[in-house]
Amino acid sequence: MSSNNNTKHLQYHSGFNNQHASEALKGALPDFQNTPQKCPFGLYAEQLQGSSFTAPREHNFRSWLYRIRPTASYPEFKPLKKSSSKIQCSFPTNEYTSPRRYRWMPVDIPNEKTDFIDGIFTIAGAGNAAMKSGFATHLYAISDDMYNSTDKKRVMINADGDFLLVPEHGALYIKTEFGDLEVHPKEIAVIPRGVRFAINPLNGTARGYICELFQGHFELPGLGPIGANGLANPRDFLYPTARYEESDDKVQVVHKMQAKLFETQTWSPFDVVAWHGNYAPYKYDLTKFCAVNSVTFDHIDPSVFTVLTAQSPVAGTAVVDFVIFPPRWGVAENTFRPPYFHRNTMSEYMGLITGNYEAKMATSKKGGFVPGGGSLHNCMSGHGPEIRVFEKESTKKLEPERVGDGSLAFMFESMYHFNVTKFGAQEATLDEDYAEVWSDVKKNFNPNERGV
């Protein structure tokens, strides 16, 4: 199934993890097999496998690409000579390991030309890409194209994991082997491991967040008692349609492996004329999320706002959940409606795409929790609403109300401890006053007055 998005030139296939089939040249897909003795139009058949061959069918991901030249014919990769990248993909216990509650201000968008490869900064993570275990949390801030028709042709391959991109400022044009995606703030994109891609900022600059998943792939959460409908609907996930270019112009292909960067010079890797399968990049519009919430009493756990999850072998326990806090109605009676005070075995990194998050105010000297910034509450570190929010929400008259209008916050929540990087601890702009948001908590206890 194909559908138009809000641009005039791009079309998409819809359906999460569907078996899609796409051809830019009619007849380029073989009729009923994957590897005919001769492919149509003199193309080469190449399989891109995102799981082991013998993975269970529901976890088996692969696509067949019919391209002008196979990637095996690339010249050998050599270490990249010049890079300002601050990517990290291994997170052992280090000198910055701490139960400290972190809050960061946004990274600056560079004045000098900086593309996506050079504009990634790793804040924290867990596990190790070489062992395909855990994940990384990155930021990106870019001011230059990776790939254009004039002076720049640079392409990236990520062998370490799947990139989940969360734009905060500026739209992205993502060119891939499978076709192209246009992704705006309030949308997300996922680029699976091994897919060749190039990212351009549509309006000159862009900034946002990345969750790089080393372990497995993202999937839709189970709905359980919610039933068959709700949260992120599968049909709203959009996949690119085949587009190809036939060009012998030299392209720099940068391969990321265990956070090390390698390069080779070759022809355009965007030469896929047709493809079919269930392993491909995709995008999703977060404004289409169907939120579920309490209509009686009590604040429901944030897991009801999960868009995508990557599950561990422990049932119901995520390597990482991608959770959002969208605009919605608050109607719970006799209830403290914002997020409650809590300590959690899961660790939480939060970011803000736009607006003001309901449990935070601009209370610190540096401005508080703002779009492009982030916060980290590691395993068992106490946190919750800022005290001014608590006092206001504990005393106001409760009526049905809109919550979060004009705002969109998100969370990467993981079973693992986050280990902060040197960049996150020393080079990024920390809000050193973050803990002060709880410093004025009052002792209200009175054993002689129940007060409710």
From TrEMBL:
SUPFAM superfamilies: RmlC-like cupins. GO terms for cellular component: cytoplasm. Fe cation binds at H342, E348, H383. Residues 288-445 form the Homogentisate 1,2-dioxygenase C-terminal domain. GO terms for molecular function: homogentisate 1,2-dioxygenase activity; metal ion binding. Pathway: Amino-acid degradation; L-phenylalanine degradation; acetoacetate and fumarate from L-phenylalanine: step 4/6. Belongs to the homogentisate dioxygenase family. Homogentisate binds at Y357, H383. Pfam families: HgmA_C (PF04209), HgmA_N (PF20510). InterPro entries: HgmA_C (IPR046451), HgmA_N (IPR046452), Homogentis_dOase (IPR005708), RmlC-like_jellyroll (IPR014710), RmlC_Cupin_sf (IPR011051). Its EC number is 1.13.11.5. The keyword Glycoprotein does not apply. Gene3D superfamilies: Jelly Rolls. Signal peptide: none annotated. The keyword Metal-binding applies. Its cofactor is Fe cation. It comes from the Eukaryota. This is homogentisate 1,2-dioxygenase. The active site is at H299. Residues 11-286 form the Homogentisate 1,2-dioxygenase N-terminal domain. It comes from Percolomonas cosmopolitus.
